[in-house]
Design brief:
With 149 residues, the protein is mostly helical. The chain is built from seven helices and no strands. It has helices spanning 2-12, 24-30, 48-61, 67-96, 99-110, 113-118, 125-144. The longest helix is centred in the middle third of the chain and has 30 residues, at 67-96. It starts with a helix and ends in a 5-residue tail after the last helix.
Amino acid sequence: VHLLSGYQYWRHRDFGANPEHPPLLKLAASAPLMLEPLNALPVLSGPTKASHSAGAIEFLYRNTVPVARLLFEARMAASVFVCVLLVLMFLVGRDMFDTTTGLMAAALFAFEPNMLANGPLITTDVAMTLGLFLVAFAGYRYASRPSTG
């Protein structure tokens, strides 16, 4: 449903699709699909969950591009958020303590089961985690070294 919603955002500028979740990851995951010759669905109406669940199945399995290719491209785009979070773990650990701590934090994060399992999925969990991590670090940086930047 998130993949279809992101595609609808790009194709129809319809942000009413799956409105209960923020659009950033859905837009990022569906961006590679804009280069594919897909059968675009019309703007879906009706109860959001029911119509979009049925539309998502039709979009994935009854399209000109195989479902494995669609999901691979979208999951690779969604995995960028985990990679950014991994780099930020290192940078924050280094900023707060030292390089060794940054490397340890990045190593622990790289093998964390929840990130390994949820990182490539087209859900908003990892993008939300990245946003919360950035906000927490920004608060820490401001409290420890206040500046305009």
